[in-house]
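One thing: mind reviewing this one?
=====
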Amino acid sequence: MSDGRVALVTGGSRGIGLACARRLQADGYRVAVTWKSAPPDPLEGPAGSLPLLPVRCDVTDADELEAAFSEVEASLGNVEVLVCSAGITEDTLLLMMSEEKWQRVLDTNLTAVYRAAKRASARMVRARFGRIVLMSSVVAYLGSAGQTNYAASKAALIGFGRSLARELAGRQVTVNVVAPGVVDTDMVAALGEERAAALTAMVPLKRAARPEEVAHAVAWLASAEAAYVTGAVIPVDGGLGMGH
């Protein structure tokens, strides 16, 4: 169990982020989630669990992110578990990709993680405890036509996470990366039924993952049982990226 530790999940209002928040909530964490378009509904979890704390935040805005951390600290306490799940896609072939599309994806998927991890880790280091989990993707090592911006951001998280893991390990703060494959979320649905079916056909297990299956891996990395795991990249991809 969590012993009531404080967890913050960015992008926690839907999809994988919400599944992670719900799982941590069920495990007894005091959980805050950032949201941009709409807060999670409902906020209540399993009987006996505390409701989620929704915090309005555009993670690409440094001032809003700082305000979000301050709100969580004032309401729940210092963030002890950080799950960086906020992410977007802006898919198009490189020759047609505008600098704006490139930058929006990098700002959301990478730069926001830098800011959140830096803000959280300062207090984790002083407390000599912390768990940071970054959400990458199988695309980071397989590549995907039309997703050079997305793949670059997700591959960068692996190098970022492993470097940070080395920096923080001496203070008992772990940093790990989860790399999902095809997951049944709005992001995959937006690709269209034909493209989603083609991607699923490539998966050895021949199905998409449920968001909850990704959340199981995140919850384990946040737990006491994973205290000796840091700098790892955990695939939750049905075998899609095996060998990489």
